[in-house]
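May I ask for whichever protein you like with its backbone structure tokens?
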Amino acid sequence: TRMQVVGSPSAVVSSGVARALKTISTTEGIRSLWRGVTSVVVGAGPSHAVYFAVYEQTKAMLTRSGQASSAVAAGAAGGVATIVSDALMNPFDVIKQRMQLGGGTGAYRSIVDCAATVMRREGVRAFYVSYPTTLVMNMPFQSIQFGCYDLFRRSINPSGTYSPLTHVVAGGMAGAVAAALTTPIDCCKTLLQTRGASSDAEVRAASSMLQSASVIYRRQGVAGFLRGIKPRIIANMPATAISWTTYEYFKWVIARRSGSSAAQNI
């Protein structure tokens, strides 16, 4: 967030992750690196539960009984799940972004204080102004992630038997690829989510992905769309690895308890 934000006093203009971490921790304290984590924790659990629930239900509806799920059905189900779960998670993501900005308008006491302040100053729209952009980013992100995960999982473990190590490695690699390829859209989303805290009139006026992309290109050039790519990959690799491993584990446990043969091939 701090490497991607445009037109804010809180922006960290740095050539690398290490320097950005040093700058933030030195000027604001080591605890500032975890600012906004509460919002992520509160929103991630419900949104992931909704995501996988909608994914499984939609995939089941699109797949004919007794046949293996097709790539089309899985992709479509992932898209529907993304739309629903992002509608729940987007306000929490906005709160996280605002709290990560640091001093000035970003100095909030808690996520409740942040939410109340944003609501009072900018209204409900502020929590969803980036929702279309989030969907534009997350739908390809999820499609890439699901496709890569399936490819890596089958390559690493052709037998298809339950293997935690396979899910960790395949999930992490899939998350890294998806995160890298969707970083330009994430930069546009960050600008939209943090525009209310900006002192730049042009940034505050941006209200769409095209406008935010235009601002980034004029101010930072092509390189501006790759800002934050390293921390984004670093953050997504363990996140997707944990997510897929947990999902596959409980899916395996449920299949075993129900006596399904699917427990042998996950």
About this structure: The chain has a mean pLDDT of 80. DSSP finds eleven helices and no strands in the chain.
